[in-house]
Amino acid sequence: MRQSILIIGEDLEINREFLNYIFQSYEDHFGELGVVSFAPKNSKELPFIIENLSKDYDFVSIFGSDENFAIAAKIVATLTGGSLELKDSTTLALKDSLDYSKNSFLASLNNAQINLIKANPNEELGEFLTEYEPDFSYFHLIDIDADSAKILMLPLAKTYEVDITLAQILPNLILVRAKSNKFGQIESFLQGVKTLFSQKFIPQKDVIKFVAKKLMQKGLKISFAESCTAGLVAAKFARYGGISASFDGSLVTYANHIKHEWLGVEDEILDTYGAVSEPCVKAMIKGTLSTTNADFALAISGIAGPGGGTASKPVGTVYVAAGDRNGNIEVERLLLKGERNYIREQSVLSAYLCLLRLKSEIFFA
């Protein structure tokens, strides 16, 4: 099924934080982001843009703040030959809408479902009303490269009439999109992949959500000690509802003296090996577990750049670690490339992969 997003108005186009809210809400509903386009509110081309989208896509979601919502509603009414009315005294919608709720209505145009949703910054989005059955699924594979994974999956994909697209997220992490053909059997394909890859298979698009759900289901807690990521590991973990069941708190220990004072990292370790080292992240793990009541801890220390690198530890050198209360610790040295925030993002994912390896029996049982 083909999906499209139309954002009307420069006020939304330049509002990155609110756009992220729109896009995340859209992805939660549809499973992935559709093709995005933007249009100014006063564009004379807007009726043609909406009509052409309805011809090219099966689902079109249109977002606009108050005035632009009303403009788009009038255009949809004109294109469908319908009329507008106020529903429940607040929502302007087609009189013969397929469906409506507060700040949202659904119409049919050229065999496409058109969902017009009011999007006012600092307010909750209108409801998505599209009835949608996805013909695709996402999953991750860990500790295998894309070429090897593709070779192993192609026979299964052919058997079950599924097309696969692979993205190398990390050297040891692959995201796979599986899309069913007309007579494809995507569930059978996914079961075959799970059997083939066993403890390498993560049946979700979001690795961190997978980890969080497993910990919450099993009543286990985790905490973090972060240096170069400065709280990003914790922030990403806290995105999900109910996370307080597995998360009490965390520590950002950017400076060496804070690593020493808060986590008990010995000065000898910092002086001899440096903060960006395996001994340091191991000590950070131990300090976190002794400071908190967590069952597990993740630690990160590295050089995200753009400066600070040396010949022996260039920019992108990051150590990530996972540990448990039994003294087991998994450490990985990363040599990442890219700008500062990309390195930080990759470091976060890598730390969670360490946890999956450390306790595979919990996550892949």
TrEMBL record:
Q: Which InterPro entries does the entry mention?
A: CinA-like_C (IPR036653), CinA_C (IPR008136)
What is a single Pfam family found in this protein's UniProt entry? CinA
Top-down, what is the taxonomic lineage of the species of origin?
Answer: Bacteria, Pseudomonadati, Campylobacterota, Epsilonproteobacteria, Campylobacterales
Q: Where is the CinA C-terminal domain?
A: 207-357
Show the NCBIfam families listed in the entry: PncC_domain
Q: What is this protein called?
A: CinA family protein
Q: Which organism is it from?
A: Campylobacter concisus
